[in-house]
Amino acid sequence: MKLRDLDALLSRWQSHGLLSEEQAGAIRAFEVEDDEDTLIERDEGADFDLGALLSYGGALVALGAVIGLYATLFDDIGHSGRIPVTWGVAVGAGVLAWVFSRARGGGAAADATGFATTILVAWAVIELFDAAGWFESRAFEGEAGYHRDLAEMRVAWIVMSMVVAGTGYALARYLPAPMAALSASVALAWAAAILGGWIGDPSSEGPGTVGSQFAVIVGIVLAAVALLDRLALDDRATLWWLIGALGTMNVGAVFLSGDEGGAYEALLLAYAIGLGLAAIFARRKVVLVFAALFLYEWVGFVVFRTFEGAVAAIIVTALVGLGTAVGGIAVQRGLMERLWARRGRSTPAA
Q1: Residues 27 and 60 both lie in one domain
Q2: Other beta carbons within 10 Å of 113
Q3: Is residue 348 very low, low, confident or very high in pLDDT (cuts 50, 70, 90)?
C-alpha cells in the first residue's frame, strides 16, 4: 500500500465517523514508522533538496553539451563514424543511469540521465535513417518521387518515435527513471501526429489540421490510460506521463483554435471543463493545472477575437486574473481539499 492510499482510507473513515482525527493520526504514525514490517511503500527522494537539484541540473547540462558536440563536429564526420558514436553514447548514458540508480543518493541523477538516454536514443535512430538518405530529397523525379521521399521521411519519424516510446517506458518502469515517461508519452503522440500528416510534409510550414486532431485525441487517450492506472508506473512516472500527454494535447488544441477558430475554439472550453471534472474524480492536481491552462487559453482567444486587442480586452483579462487570485485564496482556505476529501482523499496527488 502507498502512503497516499492510506491517507485516502483514513479520510474516508473519518468522514463516515468511524475514526476520530486523533485515531487516524495514530494509525498513520504507526504505519509509517521505520519498521521492517510496515506495509507502506515509500517514495524515497520524493522531496527535492539541493543535492537533487544539482543532480538534475548537472545531468541535463551534460546532455546539452553532448548535443552541442554532435551539432558542432558531425559535419566533419561521415555517417560511418556518426552511427557508432551516437549509439555508443546512448548506450553509455543508459549504463550510467543504471549505475546512478544503484548508488546511494543517486535517484535524481538516475532519473535525469535516464531521460537524457531517451533523447540520445532518438538522435541515434535519426542518424541511421539519415545515413540511408531518408531525411533528404534524393532527386526522385515527378510526383511519384515526391511521395516516395515523403513516405520515407514519415516512416523514419514514426520508427524513431516508437523506439523512444519503448525506451522511455522501460526506463521509467524498471530503472526507475520517472522523467523518461515524459519522453514515452510525447513520442507516442508525435507518432500519431505524423500519421495525421502533421510532421514530415516538406510542403507544409506548420502542423496540419488533421495531424493536430490526432495529437489532441491521442493525448486524451494517453492521459486516460494513466488516470485509470493502466501503466504499471510509479506515481512520479505517471505524473511525467500525464504532463507529456496533456501538454501535447494542449499544443494541438491551441494550434487548431488559433488557425481554424470556430468549433475548435469552443473545444478549448470543453476541454477545460472536462479536465476539471477529471481532476476532481481522479484527484490529480496536474490535471487541474491543465484544466486551468485550457480555460485561460479559451478566455484569451475569446477576449481578443471579440475586442481585437482593445482596452476592454485588457480589463477583462485583468478581471480574470483577479478572479484567479480569489480562487487561490479559496484553495488556501482548504475549500478544494474538502472537495477532494469527499472523493476519498484528504490531499490530492500531483
Answers
A1: no
A2: 32
A3: low
